[in-house]
């Protein structure tokens, strides 16, 4: 048994990942695999909580997503990569925890209230959607993970997970571990239109984006509307192209000054960004092609991961069943 602390995190299989995922989540996952025993899960059961009508794309999306994890540097020999629905203990623990979770805790959840109000194109008045944080709690508690890398939007779920663990331990005996969050550095990457990079806004740059597409995306980026001629004085603070320079260009301070002084125009500024981004992206694009082309390899990683995850999950469930007197 390794004495390393355990980490669990998950992502819904919604297809290819973009640079927002890379900088917001994956880089952190990659770093954590060095120091912790990491479990990274494709949460396909979670996908059902909102997209239950059509499951035909989940399988393909899982390959795309896991392929991107590996492209980003997740090493399947270090971290366990697995599929939630293939480890049946998630469903069993979810069922047990749902028995002891007060409805009020779920109804008060900010994500629940927000999504019920905002998502109008799907019927979310389902038992599973309300109970979604309980499933997330089961995911975490099953592995006795002490650290969970999540974004800010998931903090309330972590708090709920701790509350559920405490309640369980109080009732039956001390077997579950209260996890801590590990907030991912939210150096918010803006999308092509200046809003947060997100698939639903259609403003993404994909991890492993093909060079011609990448360049076309940069070409079409919004720039400072007040800088029309190349020697006009620019306002880098509000410019999408500059925000990418800031992220990718070591000399961004120089660029900031040049833009403000009107000594560099937007066309040249974009051209340089294209080159910088293109160089950054190239190794990912090459690796992604290789990884995605070999479905058998991906399937083997997932199968082996499922097996390792099951072993840990099974151990926890044996302890749980014992304290429950089942
Ligand atoms: N709820 C997370 C999301 O939608 C995904 C997720 C499922 C997760 N189970 C998890 C994250 C457990 C961390 C730990 O993004």
Care to describe what's here?
The chain has helices at residues 19-35, 44-50, 58-72, 89-100, 103-107, 110-118, 127-130, 132-142, 155-172, 211-219, 240-248, 252-261, 266-293, 295-323, and strands at 6-11, 37-42, 80-83, 147-150, 180-183. The protein is mainly alpha-helical and 326 residues long. It folds into two domains: 6-189 and 295-324, HUPs (Rossmann fold), CATH 3.40.50.620; 208-287, Tyrosyl-Transfer RNA Synthetase (Orthogonal Bundle), CATH 1.10.240. A three-stranded parallel β-sheet has the order 1-2-3. Helix 9 links the parallel strand 4 (147-150) and strand 5. Helix 8 crosses helix 9 (155-172). The longest helix has 29 residues, at 295-323. The mean pLDDT is 94. The site of tryptophan (TRP) has 13 residues, from strand 1, helix 8 and strand 4.
Main β-sheet, in a few words? 3 strands, parallel
CATH topology of the largest domain: Rossmann fold
Strand order of the largest sheet: 1-2-3
**Bound ligands, each once:** tryptophan
Please indicate the percent range of residues in DSSP E strands (runs of 2 or more).
5-15%
Continuous helix count: 14
Shape: elongated
Low-pLDDT residue spans: none
CATH-scheme architecture of the largest domain: 3-Layer(aba) Sandwich
Series of H and E elements: EHEHHEHHHHHEHEHHHHH
Mean pLDDT: 94
């Amino acid at each position: 048994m390794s004495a390393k602390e355990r980490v669990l995190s998950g992502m819904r299989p919604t297809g290819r990942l973009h640079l927002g995922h890379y900088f917001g989540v994956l880089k952190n996952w990659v770093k954590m695999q060095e120091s912790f025993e990491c479990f990274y899960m494709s949460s396909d059961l979670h996908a059902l909580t909102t997209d239950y009508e059509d499951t035909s794309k989940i399988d393909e999306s899982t390959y795309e997503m896991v392929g991107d994890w590996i492209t980003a540097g997740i090493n399947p020999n270090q971290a366990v990569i697995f599929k939630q629905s293939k480890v049946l203990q998630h469903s069993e623990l979810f069922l047990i925890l749902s028995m002891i979770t007060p409805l009020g805790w779920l109804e008060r959840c900010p994500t629940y209230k927000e999504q019920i109000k905002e998502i109008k194109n799907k019927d979310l008045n389902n038992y599973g959607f309300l109970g979604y944080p309980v499933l997330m709690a089961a995911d975490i508690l099953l592995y006795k993970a002490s650290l969970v890398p999540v974004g800010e939007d998931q903090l309330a779920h972590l708090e709920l997970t701790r509350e559920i663990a405490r309640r369980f331990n109080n009732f039956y005996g001390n077997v579950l571990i209260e996890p801590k969050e590990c907030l991912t550095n939210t150096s918010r990457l803006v999308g092509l239109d200046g809003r947060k990079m997100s698939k639903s806004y259609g403003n993404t740059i994909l991890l492993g984006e093909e060079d011609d597409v990448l360049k076309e995306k940069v070409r079409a980026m919004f720039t400072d509307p007040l800088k029309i001629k190349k020697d006009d004085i620019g306002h880098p603070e509000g410019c999408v192209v500059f925000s990418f320079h800031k992220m990718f260009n070591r000399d961004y301070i120089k660029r900031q000054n040049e833009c403000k002084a009107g000594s560099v125009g937007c066309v040249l500024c974009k051209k340089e960004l294209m080159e910088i981004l293109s160089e950054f992206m190239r190794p990912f694009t090459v690796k992604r092609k290789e990884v995605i082309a070999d479905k058998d390899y991906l399937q083997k990683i997932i199968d082996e991961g499922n097996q390792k995850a099951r072993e840990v999950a099974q151990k926890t469930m044996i302890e749980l069943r014992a304290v429950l007197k089942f």
